[in-house]
Amino acid sequence: MAQAFAAILGASVTSAACWGAGTLAIRWSGAKLSRVETFPLAFVLGASCVHLAVFTVMAAKIAYKPVWWFLLGGLLAAGVWKRPKRPKFGGSWGIAASELWWLIPFAAIFAVFSVLYLANAWAPEISPDGAGYHLTIVAKYLRAHGFERIGTNMYAGLSEGVEMLYEPAFAIGRHSAAALLHFAFLITLAWAMFAYGMRIGKPWVGAAAALIMYVSPVVGRDGTTAYIDVATGAIVFAVFYWLEIWDEQRAARLLVPIGLLAGYAYAAKYTAFVMLPYAMLFVAWRARRIRLAMIVAACAALMIAPWMIKDWIYLHNPVAPLASQWFPNPYVHVLAEQQWAEFLRRYDMANLWALPWQVTIDGGKTQGIVGPVFLLAPLALLALRYREGRRLILPGLLLLAAYFGNIGTRFLIPCLPFFALGIALALANWKIPLAALVTIQAVMSWPAVLPLYANQYLWRIETFPWEAALRIIPQEEYLRRNLNHYDVVRMIEENVPAGERVFSLTGFAESYTSRDILSGTEAALNNTLNDILFTGWMPDYQPERMFVFHFPEKSVNRIRLLQTAQAERFKQWNVHELRFFDRGVEVARRPEWRLKAWPNPFEIQLAFDNNPATRWRSWQTASPGMYIEVDFGRAENVDEVRMETSPDNPWPIQLQVQQMDAGRWVTLADRFDERQIRPSDSMRRAASYELPAHGIHYLLVQEHDWGEDDYNDDPHAWGLSVVARCPNGTLFWVKP
Known about the structure:
By secondary structure, this protein is α+β, with helices and mostly antiparallel strands. The longest helix has 39 residues, at 161-199.
């Protein structure tokens, strides 16, 4: 029960601090709000301010529990002390009491789903990304008491506006506190949608739209985990809502919350940045004054700039992990980013025309569904006959356009409030069909009904884990039963000494271990180590070819290999070793040599380390103009260059060796002979040697990892010894 209480406490105190900060901000703004809309707008606005305060604490590296209690308690106390005795505007917009009777069955549906959601949010966190990278990064920062460079997890470069709220919640109540805080955002979003219906004089529209969104299977699953999509949805809807308030009241101070929230949308998720230009254009259009739009931009910059500065300082890229081609850095490979982005745009779907069916009915490919009712989204066009409908459509379409960068179903969540309100508004004059639509969405979204029509692998809520929520079932037992590869987590925690790093070929729920895990796909170093280990057992990755350039003996100071051909997409140029000879004798490598390469200058040493298992790779599609350059630091006689490469090197690729002469490069040889060479018998040992060289002494091989059998069948050949085994993996110690 102590764990359950701590989780509720962490989420409650953080939520209360958000409300307190928001109450102060609303009081300062002078906004005239109703009782219904005050809480949701205060909560989200306050969350933006608390996020900035937490960012400051993390940047100052003073993230200790007393600091969290002082910060959260102070904001809550200030909010209670300074809150208005009653809202500035307390009316109900002239809505007859008879109209509110329609809300009773809606409230009943809301209550039933809320109990289900609460149990799932309160239970130990088992979501893939929540227990994975979201809370892993939160936990790493807390252990460091502030920000630190995390160059082995590209997700640490993303803006983490919602995760900043998870920091104090997690510090108090661990994983479930973060999930419960996200659930608070879900309640807030539904409340805000209902309040908007009240504002436009159609409470049944707001209630119906809120429920259509609220009971959506992907919303329910996402909003009860330590994800961030529902929170992002609440933030972007709050931007829209504050714009409507400003347009009605036209108080200049209202531009401040609009700007803060628009900037916070970027801080929550890069794709939500579209709300900033929307807000600026809306203000400029309605006020006919660019200066007012600039106020919005300036306030947004307060939320955006800290994240860009952090990424620039730690990762040399203000929009990490994106745009690595424009901001070269040693933490993210350009090709890895491009392949990741291409997958996110398609999810291995052969035909995107199937996307509407996938995200509403099936969900097998896109990992969730929004519910069948959203097939009626085109009905929202009928809402264009209302002023409110015309206001809703543009932000919805902007967010939908951003969605196509990642077509996973949960990335539709920020769009759903706008489309749900559009559908409900289109049926505003037909209350019975609207109520039927809500009922259909609720029934079709119930956990027991979903398997009757949706894909069996759908990401959804499956149970009502109230015993786990209250910790009647111990947390450890629940995690062993329900969290994939939790036995791997315990094996690492029990067998790896504190402070040691573990290289894992694939990821798992890393937030449940305090050890530093490097997953093979999550950063440039990880990619490279993965590639080296693959080289140990995959013939296509091993140096079986040698390109030999012959030319008359020359005395040169600098020499360059130049790529002159365009390869097929994603085919890389790679070099295991580059050697220079004079009359059959290799030119000895010296510390004075200065090595350059473009692209990927950060790993060029791999082509000069005498390890056949390592290789420099361009990590971009091979194209004309790429080069490797060596400055010998003095004149060297050279008549032959040998480049060792692997079968997966693009072919035909023609290379040139060039010499600097009077300030320009001249060609020495534009042809080469190809020879077959035999890889070393100790290739596996040469590959594993690189792990200790990077301070990694443990290797985790999980079930179904590539090469699993090779590591397990002959660990001696790899220089490995078994530390521990569990049903889902083997932990090896790597000999230095």
